[in-house]
Amino acid sequence: METVANAVHLPPLDNPHEREAVGIELEVTLQELIDLSLIGKQLHWSVVGPGARSVHLFLDELVGQWRELADVVAERAVTLGFVPDGQAGAVSKGYRVEPVPVHSTADHVVLWELARRVAGVAERIRERLVPIGAADLVTQDVLVDVVRTLEKQQWLLRTQLAEKV
Predict the structure, then answer these.
(1) What residue stretches are annotated with the Ferritin/DPS domain (predicted)?
(2) 3-class SS letters over 100-142
(3) Can you give the pTM of this predicted structure?
């Protein structure tokens, strides 16, 4: 039930159902970013090969960026009055990002596998941009920043893959 205190302090959206729908889309995005960060750490621990050290360090940077993006996305949801679930159970139930095998993985394979997953997440978020924008341009802007960051990361992953060829 919306109280006067809640209504006064929530950003205006024309339709209360839009608030819920936008919140759910933000929650999906949050869970994908958390999933990417967990996969990034798994690959971070299992990378082997001549470029393992540089890939290992790069993965730490990426994981940190995904965690920061997840925080921005979650805070936008809360700002709208929607509390997203970013707990392990919710993330594993959503299972949107393909898991990686748990074994030692060559540095170039790590880069390739991660690039595929980052691209998939960026594409799914892109699909949300128009519907989100119709409901809330500020939230759309948050997601545009997420896509911008993920696509830059794709480029950096591609450049490292090109060096391996």
Answers:
(1) 27-162
(2) CCCCCEEHHHHHHHHHHHHHHHHHHHHHHHHHHHHHCHHHHHH
(3) 0.90
